[in-house]
Amino acid sequence: MDRLKLVLQYFQSNSESISNGICIILSLISVKLYTSFDFNCPCLPQYNKMYAMGVMFVPPIILLLLGVLVNRHTGVLMEEWVRPLGKRAKNPAVVKFLLSSMMQRALLAPMVWILMTLLDGKCFICAFSMNVDPKYFTGIPNSTGLELVKIMAKVPCKEDVIFRNSSFRKAVSRYVRCYSQAIGWSILLFLIFLGAVARVIKPCFNHATFLQTRYWSNYLDMEQKLFDETCVLHARDFARKSVLQFFENMRENVTVRMPLSSAPRYSTVQNEFGEEEEERLHGITRQDQVDHLLQTWYECKPELDVTKMAYKPKACITWEDHSGRPLFSDV
Amino acid sequence: MDKFRMMAQILQSNQESFMNGICGIMALASAQLYTSFEFNCPCIPEYNYSYGISMLVIPPIWFFLLGFVLNNNVSMLAEEWKRPIGQRSKDPAVMRYMCVSISQRSLIAPAVWISVTLMDGKSFLCAYSMDLDMSEFGRNGSGHGLSQEELLRTLAKIPCKHIYDGQHIMSREAATRYIRCISQAFGWLFLLIITIVAFLIRAIRPCFTQAVFLKTKYWSHYVDTERRMFDETCTEHAKSFAKVCIKQYFEDISGEIQSCHDHDDSDDEDDKTDSEEDKLLGIRRQDTMNKVLWDWHTCKPALSLRKYGDATIAKNSESSTNANNAQGGHDCDNNEHNVSQHGFKNGYVNAGLDVGQSELEKQCDNGQNGGLNGHGNVNGSQKGFLNGGLPSPYSGQKKAWAVYYSKV
C-alpha cells in the first residue's frame, strides 16, 4: 500500500509525466488499431484514391481530437483563456505555452499512424497503382479485355483472378511500396531533425521568460487540481455533518429522571468531529455559501499573493550582552 | 495535509476510475462479443436486410441499457428526481448533469460495437448485397438472361461464400470488396463524428457555462457522497441499536442481580455503553427510526449546517416566521409539533440537559436556504433576528451563536 502511495504521489506531483504517459498510450492504441484494421482496397478506378487517402488521413484527425480531449491541460488552458479577469491579470504567454505543449503531445499519435501507413505501403499502393506506367514492367495480363486503368486499379488486390501467378502485380506493388517507404523515412528523419534543432536552440531565445511561463503553467495546473480536491473533501464533510444533523433533529425527547452528574453531558459524537471537521469546512456551511464560493472562483480568481498567510508576524528576540553585542538572535 | 490530499485523490479517483473501469470493461466486452459472435447471414432476399441491420442496431441498444443497469448513479438520479421537495429545493441543472454523465459513459460500449461492425463490413454486406449496381460489376453487362427475382436471389447469396453460384455474372470478391469499402468509410465517418461531438462538448464547454458547471459538478458529487454517508450512518446506527437492545434485554431478564455486580467493571462497560448510546444519536425506537428513514426521502434537510455545539439550541431557536415558510420551504410534518410535546420517557438520560428540549418545535424554516440560492444576506439577518426569543438556560451560548450568525 505504501509503495502504491509512493507511485501515485510521484505521478500526481508531476503532471507532465501523466500527460506523457497518456500520450504514449494513445500512440500504442494507434499502432494496435492499425494492425487490427483490415485494409480493404476497393480496386476500382474511381474509389481507390478516395479510400486510401481517407484511411491515411481520417484516423489521424480522430486521434488528434482524442489526444486533445484526454489531455488535462486542455481544461486548464480553456479555463484560463475564457475566465473573467477578476483580481488576477491574464498572461497570454502562459496560454500559448499550454497550447503548444498540448499540441505537441496530441500530434504524436496521428504522426505514428501516418508513418505506419507509409512504411507499410498498403495505402500508397491502393492510391497510386493507377499512376504507374506499366511500360516498365513485363507480364501485364492483356488477355482479359479490360481497360488498362482497370487492370492497374486491381493491382492492390492479390486474390483477384487476373493476377493469378503473375509477377507483374508483385513488381508494381514493390515499386510503389518502395516510394511509400522512402517518403515515410524522410518524414521521420525530418521530424526528428526538427525536434533536435528546436531543443538545442531553444535556450538561446528568452530562456528566462520560458522558465517563468513554465512555472506559472504548472502552477495553474496544480491550483485547479487542489481546488477540485478541496471541493471533494469539503463535500464529504458537509455531507457527513448534514446527515448527523438530520439524525439529531429527529432526536427524541428525554426528560431528566434523576441527577447522575452535575455537569451537563453533551453528545460525544459531536466532540469527535468538533474542531477538525469545523476547520475542514472552512466556515462554508450553507448551500448559498458554497454556490457563491464556486461562482467567485470562476468569475473573480484571487490574486497571486499569499503574503498574509505565509508571513504571520512573530516576535524575534535578540539577546545582547552589556556592551551591546548580540549573543543570540531569532532574526 | 498530505494525508488528506491522498484521501481526496483516492476518493475522487476511486469513484471516477471505478466508473471508467466499468465503462472500459463493457467496451472490451462489446468488442470481444463481436469477434466471438458467429455472424450468420441468411442469404435469402427477404431476410438479408433485416438481419444485417438488426445486427448493427440491436446489440448497441442492449449495451446502452446494460450500461444504465450497471451504473450506480442511475438510482441516485432517479431518487433525486422523484423525491418531494422537503426543505431542499431541486436543482434541474444538477439532474441534467448527472443524466448527461451517465449517458456519456453508457454510450461508449454501443459506439464500440457499431464501429467494429462497420469496420468489419459483414453486416453491410449482408444487408446491401442485393442493391449492387450490375453495370459496375457485371462481367457480361446485362447479358445474364436471368429474371429479376432470380437475379435478386443470386445477389443475396453473395455474403455466403460457399453457396454463391453467380460467379459468371458477378465476381463475388469484387462486390464484397466494394461493399466492405463503403462500410469502412461509414465506420470512419461515424468515429469522426462522435469524436468531433465529444471534442465540442468537452473542449469548448468552458467557453460557455464554466461557473454553472463548477456548481453542478460539486452538488452532484455532494448528493452521491451524502447518500453514501447516510447509508453508512444507518448501518452504524443499526449496529448500535442492536447492541443496546440486546444488552437491555439481558438486563431486563436478569433484573436486580446484574446491578450488584456492576461496580468493578463499570468503568469499561460505561465507556462502551456510552459510546454505543452516543452512536444511537438519540434515535431509540422503531417508529422514530422509521420516521428518520421516511423523512430522509420525503423531506430532505436543508443544505445548512449549524455551528458545533449548538445542536441542542438549534431545535428550539429556529422558529420560523410565515414569511420564511412562504419563500420556499414546506412544512413537512404538521403533526411533528404534537408528537414532540408528549416526550418519551425512558431510562437513558442525559442529565442536566434539556428541560428545554421538551419544547421541541420542529419546523421547516430552513426551507428558505434551499429555496434561495445565492441570497445569503437575507438568511443571515433573519437568523440573527430570530434568536431573540430563547428560553434562558442557554443564554450564554445563545449570545455566542447570535454573534456568529450576525457576522454572516
Overall description:
- Chain A is an all-alpha fold and 331 residues long.
- Chain A has a domain at 7-204.
- Chain A contains 13 helices and 2 strands.
- Chain A has a two-stranded antiparallel ribbon.
- Chain A starts with a helix and ends with a strand.
- Chain B has 408 residues and is mainly α.
- Chain B is elongated.
- At the A-B interface, helix 1, helix 3, helix 4, helix 10 and helix 11 of A face helix 1, helix 9, helix 10, helix 12 and helix 13 of B.
Largest sheet of chain A: 2 strands, antiparallel
Q: Per the principal axes of the C-alpha atoms, what is the gross shape of chain A? A: elongated
Order of helices and strands of chain B: HHHHHHHHHHHHHHHHHHH
Strand share of the residues of chain A?
under 5%
- Low-confidence runs of at least 5 consecutive residues of chain A: 253-257, 265-271
Which pair of chains forms the biggest interface, and how many residues does each contribute? A-B, 95 and 104 residues
* Quaternary structure classification: heterodimer
Gap between N and C termini of chain A: 43 Å
User: Any idea what the radius of gyration of chain B is?
Assistant: 34 Å
Overall pLDDT of chain A: 82
Question: What percent of the residues of chain A sit in helical stretches (DSSP H or I)?
Answer: 55-70%
